[in-house]
What does this fold into?
Amino acid sequence: MKVTVWYVVLNIGIQTIMALMIALMMHRLTRSTFLRGVVLSPYLVSNVVAALVWLWILDTQLGIFNHLLESIGLERIGFLTDETWAIPTIALINVWRHMGYTALLIFAGLQTLPESVYEAARTDGAGETRIFFSITLPLLRPIMALVLIMTIIGSFQVFDTVAVTTGGGPANATNVLQVYIYDMAFGRFQFGYASAMSVGLLIILGIITFIQFKLTRAGETDLD
Amino acid sequence: MTSIGVKSTEVSRKNNLTKRRKRKTNPGKVLAWVAMIIVVLITLFPFYWMLRTALSTNASLYAEPGSFLPPEFSTGGFQRVFGTQSVEDAVAEGGTVTDMNFWRYILNSTIVATLVTAGQLLFCSMAAYAFARLKFKGRDTVFGIFIAGLMIPSIFTLLPNFVLIKELGLVDNVLGIALPTMLMTPFAIFFLRQFFMNIPREIEEAALLDGISRIGIFFKVIIPMAAAPLATLGILTYMTAWNDYFWPLMVSYTDQSRVLTVALGIFRAQTPTSGTDWAGLMAATLVAAAPMMVLFSLFAKRIVNSIGFNGLK
It folds into this structure.
């Protein structure tokens, strides 16, 4: 459970910030469908494919990434074989796969914001940073809330990437909830216990969603 | 890029503003483009690396891990995937020697994805139409329950589904893989209902007056009008079904029903003692990803534009 929460925090934190940045850049720079297609492309391959490619890139001995690390004078890191690195690595692999999709969701939200508010702010002499924090972010709140609720629910159910890359190891360092449930049911045939845990997960997700909904006031908008 | 958002202001002020903003945001713009290019590189690099690795020999991968082009060009990886390489050659290249039949897995994946897509489009559009147009007691309550179903994590339904499929005797059968999502998903119903609700009632009423039955209206009037959202939903469903891993992993055990994603996981686990057959593995992942890439490049515009909040509030 602790592993899962750590994973969710890392995954959602990095993914949301990256996606927000990509969305803002796309919004300001270009409307090209091609670029949006490129950003979305990791989302098209399955989790298994994404996991395998990164497993190869991050391989301790042969992976290109460790090769680069070594060539700039750093030590090789066993990204998926080291207990402390495994979860952050898996979180980042999933960020890679999902950030484009999340960015496009936020991008779609950005386009619904009225231009008039921005014009007013510019006329008042507000700088870019100020505009972002005082206008874009607050107006984007309902959309961000929905995106967060969706991604967090998804993030809690991480399975494919973990199952393919580490299978819960090393030393249970990546034994996230869903892997554990799967192992319980199909490894040890304790269907009752596994079912009970999935009910528990459902309740946890329900509570998290409810709290988020209340905290972020997802149903309301500041546009009126 | 000179004047974004500055419309309908008098010329002098416009010039003034653009000048000021030009000086202010140009470095920012350059920085943003650089960041964007980095993002694109990070996004695309793994795809290139897949190709580069798939076209190398394993021995050369060990010798030159840092080479950006295939260190020693070879199609052995692809040959192993499609079973056209002899066992001796495979061993010599450090490849996985398996009796895995990727054509079979591609076929299975195609069958599953097609079944799921066809089933979902048919049943979900019917259900969505009922929720959008037909009036019956408790309609909104039932719809509310459906929407709540969107929130339920898939693992919650997994074990009951497994028991059910087992009782039906469909374990290790392509139908068993397709069945849980073939009949309906709350998302599809929700998605289609939004479109159906926007179709003007008058058209249906005119058709009713002409003596066409409800079912006739659904197939002859509503479905053609909703062709675009149906196509979008179809593509998205096909991709999801193709990429699913967890459920097929649970219900398929032999070649008879094994789909590509599961096969990839097994291919990875069956490594020869000399080390993982990376060339073969990357060739296999490319084979698994390629159909979706083709599908995406054909419909990129539609898929990209469908992602948004027009459906969700």
About this structure: Residues 168 and 175 of chain A are 4 Å apart (CA to CA). Chain A has ten helices and no strands. Chain A has one domain: 2-216. The first helix of chain A runs from residue 2 to 29.
